[in-house]
Amino acid sequence: MMMASLNLPERIRQDFPILQRKVHGKDLVYLDNAASAQKPLAVIEGQREYLSNYHANIHRGAHHLAQLATEAFEGARGKIATHIGAAHTEEVVFTGGSTDAINLVAQAWGRANLTSDDTVLVTRMEHHANIVPWQMVCAEKGAKLVPVNVLEDGTLDLDDYASCLEQHQPKMVGFVHASNTLGTINPVAEMCAQAKAAGALTLVDGSQALPHLNIDVQAIDCDFYVATAHKAYGPTGLGFLYGKKSHLESMPPWRGGGEMIESVSFEGTTFNGLPHKFEAGTPHISGGIAFGIALDWMNGVGTENISHHETRLVEHAHAALGTLKGLQIIGTAPHKVGVVSLVVDGLHPYDLGTLLDGQGMAVRTGHHCTEPLMQHLGLESGTLRMSFAAYTTREEIDRAVIALDRAINMLR
Amino acid sequence: MMMASLNLPERIRQDFPILQRKVHGKDLVYLDNAASAQKPLAVIEGQREYLSNYHANIHRGAHHLAQLATEAFEGARGKIATHIGAAHTEEVVFTGGSTDAINLVAQAWGRANLTSDDTVLVTRMEHHANIVPWQMVCAEKGAKLVPVNVLEDGTLDLDDYASCLEQHQPKMVGFVHASNTLGTINPVAEMCAQAKAAGALTLVDGSQALPHLNIDVQAIDCDFYVATAHKAYGPTGLGFLYGKKSHLESMPPWRGGGEMIESVSFEGTTFNGLPHKFEAGTPHISGGIAFGIALDWMNGVGTENISHHETRLVEHAHAALGTLKGLQIIGTAPHKVGVVSLVVDGLHPYDLGTLLDGQGMAVRTGHHCTEPLMQHLGLESGTLRMSFAAYTTREEIDRAVIALDRAINMLR
Amino acid sequence: MSEGLISSRQQEVIEEFELFDDWMDKYEHLIELGKDIPAIQPHRKTDDHLIKGCQSKVWLAADETDSGAVEFTADSDAIITKGLVGLMVRVLSGADARAIAEADLHFLDAIGLHQHLSPTRSNGLASMVKQMRLYAAALAARQS
Amino acid sequence: MSEGLISSRQQEVIEEFELFDDWMDKYEHLIELGKDIPAIQPHRKTDDHLIKGCQSKVWLAADETDSGAVEFTADSDAIITKGLVGLMVRVLSGADARAIAEADLHFLDAIGLHQHLSPTRSNGLASMVKQMRLYAAALAARQS
Ligand SMILES: Cc1ncc(COP(=O)(O)O)c(C=O)c1O
Ligand SMILES: Cc1ncc(COP(=O)(O)O)c(C=O)c1O
Question: Which one, of A369, A385, A263, A266, lies nearest residue A321 by Cα?
């Protein structure tokens, strides 16, 4: 496994057509994977093949193409269920992405269950997608939204977590599996167990975990788990909600329309069973199929190999960046996914990012949709974030460090 | 124009790779276009090109790929705005499809504006997508949902429409531009004018109009217009909501998350301007870009040429089907898009559809997500529907008629 | 042994369908099979015996014979669906409850009808098979 | 004619940037330009003068000179953004209000900075240009 992961980029880089391209005349160095990962050829071609050869609307069609498309789409649902260790395939609901999935829970579960006596607990390291939907439903219901603290090194304050559970007795607890800004991997299984003991349901935002870690929702024992395909080598416009069957069954539907009904009349409408109850309208068929292919690709490479490779990259990046004067790494938790945020004394991340772009390097700057975290850490202008994928090499990180050094010198 | 439309399929069939394929050893005859249209090569290749060469997450990225992707995606929004004659580009909101767009209005507008004194008016020819979201919000708010009648020939009962407006004073009126089951084209501009005079807002479901007709939302003068890309030669998982700026501005957001905010804190969040306020999370970037290409393709062919061609096909199909004994066409309105529904005395549409499939022909059978219409017309088992696109030929219709004749003989 | 019964009947059906290499011929044959279906008694064509999830309606009833075997009667408002039901009844009816509950119905694959068996297929063959097995399992439980 | 002024200054900038064929050299030059920016008075660095929609902060003020021209002062917390502001100020400051409001700023394209001008670009150059034109248009309206 060690050997395999050392050679990982070498073995797989040719799977990614975009990695051949130039930016401003220089070889692209793509270090913005936490925003969105690039796609292997199998995913791109799988989507093309579907659209060229067996596209049709699914589920109700009695003709051959509809049958092929339905089997492929439902097959992808099965692949997701297997990949995350769901007990039942119908526990996987296709959504437009993580954001859509969290809104589904906040709206369908939240509006039916939250009252003005209730609290929803989240953390200060959440992405806006796991804050704003709760703010909206809490505002509507008069419920309280409480954040758990984050420590200096970017780990979650687990003492504060325990006392928030005790003090606020929340009905729902939402937290990231891995932080998109800090890289921190949270101890989700323990956190779910504690929440359960305190009588709360749990929603784990796995957007940054799916591309990097093995996921087993039954081992984590969360009530809901969400992720988005485009960060995990998959297509845009697609994600999923996993929910324990009993919860999904008792939740009212959210969107109304075709597919999610059993029968419709003006006198009264009855809803379909799982998972269709939550999938109104024609789904993103090509996206579902392509996401299944992305998971196949990841499993072919081996998620542990990817994890292991990225852990090495993070260590390497931390060490190499340490040589630059005035540079501070934001987020040094012991367990991290392939995300390295940094700031440089007296310099604006935007300037640094622009000067990296000028050298062909794609990084992200700003608040990374985690403004409350930036406020908490006193980083008004945000950070510069490099984020890695299976195809990222040590050489690319070295090039980025040299480019950053040049940028710092130009700006000083 | 006449000449151009006569040769239309000949000129464009080679643009559609799927039309080369066989089904059960026979040449595919794809007559299920109202469920979903096939994709021209330009759309398929445009999506592939994006994913292979300039994929990145959009809007907040300062690097080159993010810039290219943002320009392409926002460029597509501009193409939609131009195509439908919107006054402002930001009046076009990307959604997951028509269903998602109608739910957005039903939830964001409806929950803020409907009370137990209010009525929403729809028609008996609506797709479930334009019924169930209103049923759900009406149930929540105690508002009334009232359907306008449909006449025997499949035209809307405009007298009933006028008297419903007068009697119920609805706050919102929703209707299809063209019916997916009957083909009927409604006089949407007149209907919007009448609704406006009665003080109601209007939502036009253009899912079946976009692929067939020129659309000018300012001429129609509707308040909202929705459509879905996959029926208009575009990708799956994407659609749009057009709304008059003043309405969209005054509506609260629906989904919360990244992109739709101006700033987030636990003390309070402020929302972004149009159209982003309604676009939480990473959008379906490749889908948006591919949809822009689909509209380019349609405009290259000429929407009037497509309309004209399909009108001829409908006339031809009506005449040719008329030769089959016991066959009745459901929906004979004077103005129709390329949709022909039919039933055959004593035979189940499912049997007919299956026997057409056995001969390589894709048609749809059942209620077509218009159960209330089927109940109204007393067609418990639904209809068999043939639906046409720009690439459909007279010969294909002739083959379908022969195949149908054979099926009827086998079943009798 | 009624396991052997189901198995030999499957073999019979497979050989029968091997004669047809065109789908239309298969459907022709299914239509014929539907005509011989042991008809469900009219008064039993109620919602209780209706199988959900089909575009066409299927009614199915199961009875225990004196020897403890299961006999199915059925009907459908669509002719090809009736043929599919007829085929299932022909293979399973008269076998032991337990054998039915556990039968490996490979013939559906072999004759190319597995695509009709997909749970997403609108004819509901999958629901039909499930219902037959449920009836049989319930009987088997009662017998043991 | 201050239209001519804007136009000749654009030409000057275009020729200056033609010397650089690498982005890094352009940025180097922008950084230099930022240093010469006519600084906004510290007490005017308030929310009123802050331009929205930038990752970096930009403050911009406009004043009318005795001769009726518009003079801009500005600042930013990011160095390259400051250079971009500096460039805009250099081209527009001192021209007539009307000329500024209506100026065709083709130089941004010519020097490859149009990509920084896209409304979706996070540096907010687009908002900045819009704000400069708004100030000028308001002044022009008052003058006429
Ligand atoms: C008239 C009409 N409205 C709405 C829809 C729903 O579109 P979608 O499933 O793409 O959301 C359809 C198509 O299924 C339709 O034909
Ligand atoms: C931790 C986290 N949660 C949620 C999201 C939202 O994902 P999407 O924008 O695909 O809905 C992201 C990515 O932007 C993320 O990093």
Answer: A385
**B133: its two tokens:** 């979201």
- Cα–Cα distance, B241 to B224 (Å, whole number): 7
Nearest-CA residue for ligand 2 atom 16 is A180
Same domain, A271 and A356: no
Q: Is the CB of A256 under 6 A from ligand 1?
A: no
User: By three-state DSSP, how is residue A54 classified?
Assistant: coil
DSSP H or E stretch at residue A155? none
Is B128 in Cβ contact with A256 (below 8 Å)? yes
Residue D11: CB atoms within 10 Å: 13
* Residues B150 and B252 reside in one and the same domain: yes
Structure tokens that stand for A376 in this block: 């908490």
Q: What is the number of the ligand closest to the CA of A230?
A: 2
State the CATH number of the domain containing residue A201. 3.40.640.10
Q: Is the pLDDT of residue A403 over 90?
A: yes
> Tokens representing A175?
């937290």
**Is there a single domain that holds both residue A185 and residue A100?**
yes
Q: Residue holding tokens 């309208």? A: A281
pLDDT band per the 50, 70, 90 thresholds, residue D70? very high
Residue B252 included in any domain: yes
Domains and CATH numbers, chain C: 2-143 (3.90.1010.10)
Residues B26 and B100 in one domain: no
- A264 lies in a domain? yes
Strand partners, A185: A178
DSSP secondary structure letters along C40-61: PPGGG-SGGGBPSS-SS-EEEE
Q: Annotated active-site positions of D, please?
A: 54
Rounded to whole angstroms, how far apart are CA atoms B310 and B390?
7
Instruction: Answer with the one of B299, B333, B356 that is the final residue of a domain.
Output: B299
b/e string for A246-281 if b means 16 or more Cβ within 10 A? eebeebebbbbbbbbbeebebeebebbebbbbbbbb
Amino acid (one-letter) located at B145: L
Instruction: Tell me if residue B222 is catalytic.
Output: no
Contact of C60 with C132, CB cutoff 8 Å? yes
Q: What is the total count of domains within chain B?
A: 2
Q: Domain for residue B251, yes or no?
A: yes
Q: Which among A278, A299, A320 is the end of a domain? A: A299
pLDDT band for position C117 (50/70/90)? low
Indicate whether A206 and A88 sit together in one domain: yes
Residues B18, B115: one domain?
Answer: no
Per-residue pLDDT band at B352 (split at 50, 70, 90): very high
Q: Which residues of B touch C83 (CB under 8 A)?
A: none
Helix D79-92 and helix D125-143, axial crossing angle in degrees, nearest 10? 30
- Within 8 A by CB and 6+ apart from C62, the residues are C70, C71, C72, C132, C135, C136, C139
What does R_g of chain A's alpha carbons equal in angstroms?
A: 22
A111-154: per-residue pLDDT in tens?
999 999 999 999 999 999 999 999 999 999 999 999 999 999 99
Using CA atoms of A263, A268, A273, A279 in order, give the dihedral in degrees to the nearest 10.
Answer: 80
Predicted TM-score (pTM) of this structure: 0.96
Confidence label for A7 from pLDDT (cuts 50, 70 and 90): confident
Each residue of A230-270: pLDDT tens digit? Answer: 999 999 999 999 999 999 999 999 999 998 998 999 999 99
Question: Residue A390 corresponds to which tokens in the numbers above?
Answer: 């299976």
The ipTM (two decimal places) reads: 0.95
Q: Under an 8 A CB cutoff, do B381 and C80 touch?
A: no
The pocket around ligand 2, CB under 6 angstroms, is made up of A 97-99, 127, 129-130, 176, 180, 205, 207-208, 228, 230, 239, 369; B 258, 281-282
Q: Which of B24, B348, B411 shows the shortest C-beta gap to C31?
A: B411
Maximum Cα interatomic distance, chain C, rounded to a whole number of Å: 45
Q: Where in the sequence is the domain holding B337, given as residue range(s)? A: 2-30+303-411
Chains within contact range of chain D (3+ C-beta pairs < 8 Å)? A, B
